[in-house]
Design a protein that fits this description.
Length: about 325
């Protein structure tokens, strides 16, 4: 069993006191993640939780800071979660996606801090990613452009993160290193197969352009030779300008776009309004930021395969 810190960090005490919680005995399930007989991992949100569970297997106890159905971008961390973070063996997060998580991790005394963003390459993406469709977009709505955190939607980058997480687990919990190594290799093999499915399934389509609610699919678009046009940029809750909407409608007509995609964790109102005005269909393309009853699948792989089918239908796969 790995050596554990049984003390509570100063930030956890301060947070608990500020909310009148007094002691950790009142903490919910999120705090119970710490001090189990396993390697305790706190993951920031679902894609990282999934990696930790798949790589760790029976050796790990994983909890997520982001609850199912909760939009992760604007997550606020509770005192219970802060306490659990301080008592865990490792935290797995993605820097710059969730500011509250970044702050908590920086102040935490957790020994193993794994930043998924450091395990692959990130790019700066705006509203349009991956191809020629920008020639139709005369808008100046690029204030939301920045480093795109949605690396998990590209199976190749996600596999790179998986390899990094596996190595971090091996180092932090060496007695189970062999199992972590085996499970990581198996996961990477599955991701390689998923990459091949996308390559094959999207190789020959009538159009290469698709419209989404927010710019979550830039890495996926670039990987498979597509162009993502996002209504709201990287922020799923922002509102598009009238000029942006006009340009999207113009682009849709020019590039043979048939579908406006929306997602399960944010409102579909804007997507459906634009689709109606431009006489387009709507469908779900899931950024897999959380799995809920509305998700088209029970885990990362099944939702990605549903995404592939939705893209094939919208793009006119031959």
């Amino acid at each position: 069993m790995n050596v554990r810190r049984r003390h509570i960090s100063g930030i956890a005490i301060a947070a608990a006191t500020a909310l009148g919680l007094g002691t950790l005995s009142a903490c919910s399930d999120s705090a119970s993640a710490a001090n189990t007989d396993k390697f305790d991992v706190v993951a920031a949100f679902y894609p990282l939780q999934y990696l930790a569970e798949q790589i760790g297997g029976d050796h790990v106890h994983v909890t997520s800071l982001t609850k199912p159905g909760q939009e992760p971008h604007d997550l606020e961390i509770s005192a219970q979660q802060t306490a659990a973070l301080g008592e865990s063996d490792a935290v797995l997060y993605l820097k710059n996606l969730q500011p509250a998580v970044d702050d908590a991790v920086s102040q935490s005394e957790v020994r193993t801090k794994i930043d998924a963003a450091s395990l692959t390459t990130l790019e700066k993406h705006g509203n349009e990613v991956g191809g020629h469709a920008a020639s139709h977009d005369t808008s100046k709505n690029d204030e939301l452009a920045g480093l795109d955190p949605h690396i998990w939607l590209d199976p190749v980058r996600y596999a790179q993160v998986a390899q990094g997480v596996g190595k971090a687990f091996e180092k932090a919990d060496p007695k189970n290193a062999a199992d972590y190594r085996t499970r990581t290799a198996a996961l990477v093999k599955k991701l390689d197969a998923l990459n091949t499915e996308f390559e094959t399934g999207l190789a020959d389509t009538k159009t290469k352009v698709f419209i989404t609610t927010h710019a979550a699919f830039g890495y996926l678009a670039e990987r498979y030779g597509l162009t993502e046009e996002a209504i709201n940029g990287l922020d799923p809750e922002s509102e598009p300008s009238a000029e942006r909407v006009k340009n999207l409608e113009k682009m849709a007509k020019a590039d043979g776009v048939t579908t406006v995609f929306y997602e399960t964790l944010v409102s579909d109102k804007t997507a459906k309004t634009i689709a109606a005005d431009a006489h387009l269909k709507t469908d779900v393309l899931d950024p897999i930021e959380g799995i809920t009853a509305k998700s088209r699948g029970k885990d990362y792989f099944s939702v990605q395969q549903a995404n592939l089918k939705a893209l094939q239908k919208a793009l006119g796969s031959k």
